[in-house]
Amino acid sequence: MTTISKANRALSKWQIFKWPSILFVLSFFGLILALLVDGAADWFAVAAIAVSVIVPVKFLIRRES
Amino acid sequence: MQAVTFKRWEWTHKWTSLICTVFLLMLCITGLPLIFHDEIDATLNPAVWEPKHPDGPYLSYDQIMTIGLAQRPNEVPIYMSFDTDRPVVNITSGPTGDADATDMHFASYDLTSGELVPPADVGESVMEFILQLHTDMFLGLPGMLFLGFMGFLFVLATVSGVVVYRQYMRNLAFGTVRKQKNRRLKWLDQHNLLGITTLAWVLVVGLTGVINTLEKPILDTWRSQNLQHLLSEYQTQNSTIATANASIDQAILAAKQALPNMQLQFVAFPGSDFSTNEHYAIFMHGDSPLTKELITPLLVKASNGEIVGVSEMPWYANALSLSRPLHFGDYGGLGLKVLWFILTLFTLWVLVTGLYLWWKKR
Fold it and tell me: How many domains does chain B have?
């Protein structure tokens, strides 16, 4: 396999998992930081997990409309 | 990915999902009201209890104990615990320190007057039923372990779902929902989208749920190894249960001085399962969202109030303690609970669409 085709495969994988990775990192670290940072539970968790709710709903509305 | 490898992942996703789905549906449905347990209790019990002397001085813990035992003359104190949001002390007593839970008596006292605090128990039986169903399906430890295994299968289904997702989404943009084609495609896309976006939350709640089902074995191991080790260091052979000569207030004060950054959780009296025959065991915890789940026990001589030992909790007991808030979503405010509720609904929809897709594909 050539370097270009390897790069294409990697890019294709990244395209599939770009948004899921971003959401995963945001919501996972939001959950953990909320527990670790004293007095910041709602700030971190709500902001980060809200992304997990808002993004799919936004996409659902956009794609379905 | 090779076709054979993909088939294996798809097979794993299908069967792990199918086996656990019925139980996961039950867990999600019973989990929804449990998220708002505190709010439901407050709604069903609107009469707000007030201390008799809101601005008055508090009685000592020794005075409360004297009042409590006067009402249960043939019993001994087993545990004393403390409400965090109101001046209330709870006393658990029984015929002996090692009495069965069914023989124990629990009563709450107003710290400002020593009067009994009426239990706020309207709707408690319904919530207790839901909690029991969610925890062990009324089957005790075997039920808990079985649900733990179902949780493990669910985690496996989630991980295999991510692998399968990649294959299904090769030629589709993220968030595509093919509404115009047919219901199967539309629901497949919704299944994929909601499944992948809730991945982190589902894994955290799923894994912590599995850890929670191991609560009894973990606590038994902690008690038989770490706690027993601490207790055996100070337990005199053939000793009888000591009379608690030292003041409870004095013992608690000594514990607070030894661990000044921690809060009081509960006191186990001499002869109880969590202490020796000669010591109070005082359990302290932190006050941040993280440390309030982590407990540190101290042993205090019942004869003179002197601290004789402090023990750190082992890693597996700390893992259990930390898994509780991450599973229940109760370490923030109402906003966090609402999000937990919405994400549970999303998970329900992923389960329902998954079942539908399997049924259509048969």
Answer: 3
Query: Would residue B271 be called left, alpha or beta, if left means φ above 0 and alpha means ψ between -120 and 50 degrees?
Result: left
Pairwise CA distance, residues B173 & B196, whole Å: 13
Task: Looking at the structure, tell me whether residues B38 and B182 fall in a common domain.
Answer: yes
B52 in any annotated domain? no
**Considering CB atoms only, which of B194, B204, B325 is closest to A56?**
B194
Contact B335 A62 (CB under 8 A): no
Q: What is the CATH number of the domain that holds B244?
A: 3.10.450
The DSSP H or E segment spanning B82 is strand B76-82
Q: Containing H/E element for B266?
A: strand B263-268
- The answer on B220 and B194 residing in a single domain is no
Cross-chain Cβ contact A56/B343 below 8 Å: no
Q: Are B299 and B234 in contact (CB under 8 A)?
A: yes
Say what the ipTM of the complex is.
0.73
**Confidence tier at A65 by pLDDT (50, 70, 90):** very low
pLDDT tens, position by position, B136-166:
999 999 999 999 999 999 999 999 999 999 8
